[in-house]
Write a structure and sequence with these properties.
Blueprint: H1 18-28, H2 35-46, H3 53-60, H4 67-79, E1 83-87, E2 93-97, E3 106-109, E4 115-117, H5 124-132, E5 143-146, H6 156-167
Parallel strand pairs: 3-5
Antiparallel strand pairs: 1-2, 3-4
Helix pairs in contact: 1-2, 2-3, 3-4
The chain binds zinc ion (2 copies).
One zinc ion (ZN) is lined by residues 109, 111-112, 114, 148-149, 152, 155, 157-158.
């Protein structure tokens, strides 16, 4: 028997909210919709920048789930392509929402890890070339590393650090 739910089930993917698209991807891949998973997706939707597991865990606030759960959620989210994973120059992973958002390539400040989206993907043609060879589910991560921010004094991360050291 097929369960009938609200009018949402009739919506085409492009009409669904990003949250609904993500939840649908979880279900389609046999992953259950848990409170921590929903909260993590919301953190990613609300964030304007890519986040590490630790940063996601901090933004969840207390009592939602432990850090190990965040790690596990993020690797399953990556598998079902809800998120896209990138790396800082020391190999630390960061994640950004892939579903419902256009993919970005980034310039990353090595000093403070400030990530600046380039504004468009410069490797989409290369990705298509690889896919045309017959490879399935091709994705890429392209990050450029810079010694410091364009305007180090105005880097939001540096500003926050300066404020914190003043407060001490
Ligand atoms: Zn790209
Ligand atoms: Zn910086």
């Amino acid at each position: 028997m097929t369960k009938r739910r609200g009018p949402n089930t009739k919506k085409r993917p492009e009409e669904l909210s990003i949250m609904d698209q993500c939840l649908r991807a979880l279900k389609a891949n046999g992953l259950s919709i848990t409170q921590p998973r929903k909260r993590i997706i919301q953190v990613l939707i609300d964030s304007k920048e890519p986040l590490t597991n630790e940063a996601i865990h901090r933004r969840l606030g207390r009592g939602v789930c432990d850090l190990a759960t965040v790690y596990r959620c993020m690797s399953s989210f990556e598998e079902v392509r809800i998120v896209h994973r990138g790396f800082f120059d020391d190999g630390t992973s960061f994640y950004e929402l892939d579903m419902g958002r256009s993919h970005e390539d980034y310039i990353i400040c090595k000093r403070c890890r400030h990530t600046e989206p380039i504004g468009f993907c410069i490797a989409s043609d290369m990705e298509r070339l690889v896919a045309n060879r017959g490879y399935k589910d091709v994705s890429h991560t392209l990050t450029f590393f810079a010694k410091e921010c364009l305007d180090p004094d105005n880097c939001p991360h540096n500003k926050a650090a300066a404020k914190a050291s003043k407060a001490k």
